[in-house]
Structure formats: structure tokens, C-alpha cells
Amino acid sequence: MSRQAPTNRVVQGSVWVEPVQLTFMVVGAGMGGLGLMILFVGCLSTGDTRNRVYRTWRGRVGGRISCAIFMGITYLLTLAWLLMFAVLIIVTIFYTLAWFQCINVPSNECIDYNQD
Prior knowledge:
- The chain has helices at residues 17-44, 47-53, 57-104.
- By secondary structure, the chain is mostly helical.
């Protein structure tokens, strides 16, 4: 008997994979766009460029407000990423603990978490 290489098969009940992938792509593209906007505002609001672009008092106030808004968005996104990182660490720890339980438990009582 010859063994064939595993093929990409769709597991029943995995209809959630495509929406999750699409969500990750949209969030990634949105964060990339936001990063470019923050870079653009940062370049316009520092140094000699600030004096050329924001000449009037009203322009400077608008620049300060846009910087404050982007700083707030960046702060919130940083907190969201840290929260997601903490949740993923907890999930990884529990998966690792469940995976290593098979070392101390007989094989007929062990739950196999591998996805073959």
C-alpha cells in the first residue's frame, strides 16, 4: 500500500474559516491604511513642514486636533492588540497544558487534540 500526501479537505462544520480570514484581511488593510494616515499627519505636523503647511492659527488648531484624534485611535488600538495578545497567550497555555497531559495519563484515557 502506498500512502498519499494529505490533501486539503474541508472539515465539516468549518464554515467559519472564510469569514474569519476575510475579517483578518479587512482589519489588516484597515490598520495599514491607518498607519499610512498617521505617518502622513506626523510628517505634516513636525519640524519645518508644520510652519509651511499650518501657517494660520486656525490651521494649527486643526493640525493639533487631528494629531490628538490619531493619538487617541492609536492608544485604543494598542490596548486592543494587548488584550488580544493576552487572550491568545491564555489560549496557548491551556492548549499546551492539555497537550502535555498525555505524558502523565495512559493513552486510552488521553484526549487527542491533534487535527489530522
